[in-house]
Amino acid sequence: MRPHLLTLLFAGLIAACSAPPSQTTAQTSAQSLQGGLALPEPSREAPSSAGQVKLSFAPVVRRAAPAVVNISSKRVVRQQADPFWQMFGAVPGNQVEGSLGSGVIVRADGLIVTNNHVIEGGQEITVSLADRREFPAKVLLSDSRADLAVLKIDATGLPTLAINADEDLQVGDLVLAIGDPFGVGQTVTNGIISALNRTDVGSGDAFSYIQTDAAINPGNSGGALVDMNGELIGLNSFIVSRSGGSVGVGFAIPGPVVRQVVEAALGGHAVVRPWLGVAGQTVTSDIARTMGLDRPEGVLVAEVYPGSSASRAGLEQGDVVLGIDGQPVNDVVTLNYRVGAHRAGDSIVIAYRRKAEARTARAEAAAPPATLPRDEQTLAGRQPFQGAVVVNLSPAVALDLGVNPFADGVLITQLKDGIGAEYFRPGDIIRQVNGQTIRTVAQLKAALADSRRWQVTIERDGQTISGSFGL
Predict the structure, then answer these.
(1) Domain boundary among 324, 341, 364
(2) Which residues are catalytic?
(3) What is the pTM of this model?
């Protein structure tokens, strides 16, 4: 018998799905971090009767499922020529490749958020609603760094999901994953939040994921992870699996990041993620002992960028950042995420420790500074970097490209056809040419001009490499 894909029967739902929420006020834990952070005690309740166990997720599904859509994307890929068949005059043709995923309607006028990898490179994107209507979609914004994209279809009066960006989430909370796995049709699966603030998965240096054991499979990407209020708490993005199918280890992009990208699309501008301006490292057991801490916690500040939010707030090298806005941070990625999920201009509260003293500071969530213009250029002419696409590094450019925001100099971002492709790689930083220190693209071009021999020094993966070129 073919299962009905819009219905999910499950034993184990808490009473909150159909009964009024508890009016008990959450008490504040007596335990706190050394920086003075107090975290609330959970106010959730486990099922306490057979009647509660027989309750259904159906009311939540009825609210949330109509706002989850199917997305198909097609792109034309030119096939590579086979030298054997070319001898007989055969010409390679084009092949149409497609991908399937899911998306969530966040505005009634047809604004949809999904994963960037679902639509990346797509030349024809089609959105299928839960009521089986289909619409062509255009891309308003794509953010490869966050793996999010915002689409627009020509429709009105659509069902929507509210984005929950408050992050009032706890491990063990019940969640539903709604999407279109394997293209079989809209499907609902359930589970719990298995973990929060997962920073050692995925990619990027500013993202923290929600982990869930709700079944997520290929095709679920871009679909909704919803709480028991039927609100969007995350966008299902990827799984960890040896088989390619769900083994209960799935990850979702949190609501604050989704909200940030949607707001940027509505504003018609690129995503701006605030940056605190510190380089640091996780406090390990050895570091904690050296610093006289009771236990390892927080991020040890190794460097503060001059003029940054951290500098203006008074942070110094050697401080230990313990939390942002009452939320603990124990690694640099979580620190960057907590700051970066804010809107630019927001005020943030930093809890930190300086030697034996617990302190707090207030800082502005500010965009990373563009200390130099980007000045992106493709280098031409007969010289070692011919065909290299280069930019001036600044914190703004570095964070956009996913490299160290404290780095300076001229970065190679791409290598097109030319001499440079033989010797260099994207990510190389050009340090010197013929003994001249290179800080800008203009300086690089001047140093390369009017010469037939070049002594070049670059930085690659933290190592300095030098070489001589004569052309």
Answers:
(1) 364
(2) 117, 147, 221
(3) 0.77
